[in-house]
């Protein structure tokens, strides 16, 4: 009798273990597959199609699962580590003080300078050798109010702007906003008619927005190359001027190399 009982118990235990293995396998498969409903957040953590009423009721009371985000970046870096996102935001906020914002203009003529870059500042050899070297950021701007290139140095430890350098005639590469504004000015000018015609020929659609083009901008200075250019570009270098290389998004190039957009004066000129 005892032997029969043990055999029955072994068979029952075998079913339990096998059932658990099947459930584990099914769970692994479900984890590995992302369903459209789950991605939209419309599906909860309910059981499968054959779940019991009790299981479905329990699942309905559970909170929907969430995708865990990547760990947040630390507020500050150390040594010569690249600036963290928090450090960049802090440096930009400190550099663009109220007085600077009110007295400057961006590429579209709005209050506040056009921010170009935010980088870790260089240190002196003595500072590099220090046990705890300071962390400073350099934030660069172009001020369209008076055509100046401005560099603000921010001490991230003290939270103070330690140096401001203002230069004229310095023309770093344009940022994306400046390139898009140059495209907009070109589209609005009569010299942009060829661009719009070529776009229409290539796509069958009208060119109405700058983002319909993939554009790259390069700084232009008067007298570059063998062609001194027309009188309309003689201020380029003191003014912020760019030449555009444009193409249809995912399509052919459209030659605009002979056109110069003066972002400071909001004009367009043709070379040659």
Strand-helix topology:
Elements: H1 2-32, H2 36-40, H3 53-61, H4 85-95, H5 98-103, E1 114-120, H6 125-129, E2 136-143, E3 148-155, E4 160-167, H7 176-188, H8 193-203, E5 213-219, E6 241-248, E7 253-254, E8 259-262, E9 267-270
Antiparallel strand pairs: 1-2, 2-3, 3-4, 5-6, 6-7, 6-8, 8-9
Q: What does this protein structure show overall?
A:
The structure is a single chain. The chain is α+β, with helices and mostly antiparallel strands and 272 residues long. Among the domains are: 85-168, Nuclear Transport Factor 2, Chain: A (Roll), CATH 3.10.450; 176-270, Nuclear Transport Factor 2, Chain: A (Roll). It is built from eight helices and nine strands. The strands form two sheets. Strands 5, 6, 7, 8 and 9 form a five-stranded antiparallel sheet that branches. It is elongated. It starts with a helix and ends with a strand. Residues 1-74 have low confidence and may be disordered. It comes from Streptomyces antioxidans. Residues 38-60 have a biased composition (Low complexity).
């Amino acid at each position: 009798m005892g032997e029969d009982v043990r055999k029955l118990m072994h068979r029952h235990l075998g079913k339990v273990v096998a059932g658990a293995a099947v459930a584990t396998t099914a769970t692994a498969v479900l984890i590995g597959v992302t369903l459209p409903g789950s991605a939209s957040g419309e599906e909860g953590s309910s059981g499968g199609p054959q779940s019991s009423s009790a299981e479905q009721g329990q699942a309905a009371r559970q909170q929907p699962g969430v995708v865990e985000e990547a760990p947040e970046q630390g507020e500050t870096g150390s040594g010569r580590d690249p600036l963290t996102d928090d450090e960049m935001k802090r440096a930009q906020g400190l550099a663009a003080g109220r007085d600077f914002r009110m007295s400057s203009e961006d590429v579209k003529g709005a209050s506040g300078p056009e921010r170009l870059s935010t980088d870790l500042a260089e240190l002196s050899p003595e500072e590099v050798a220090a046990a705890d070297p300071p962390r400073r950021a350099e934030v660069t701007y172009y001020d369209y109010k008076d055509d100046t290139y401005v560099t603000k140095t921010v001490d991230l430890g003290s939270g103070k702007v330690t140096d401001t350098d203002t230069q004229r005639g310095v023309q770093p590469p344009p940022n994306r906003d400046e390139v898009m504004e140059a495209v907009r000015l070109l589209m609005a000018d009569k010299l942009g008619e060829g661009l719009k015609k070529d776009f229409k020929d290539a796509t069958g659609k009208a060119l109405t927005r700058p983002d319909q083009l993939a554009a790259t901008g390069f700084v232009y200075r008067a007298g570059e190359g063998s062609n001194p250019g027309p009188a309309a570009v003689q201020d380029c270098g003191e003014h912020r001027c760019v030449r555009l290389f444009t193409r249809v998004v995912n399509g052919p190039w459209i030659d605009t190399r002979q056109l110069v957009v003066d972002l400071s004066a909001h004009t367009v000129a043709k070379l040659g």
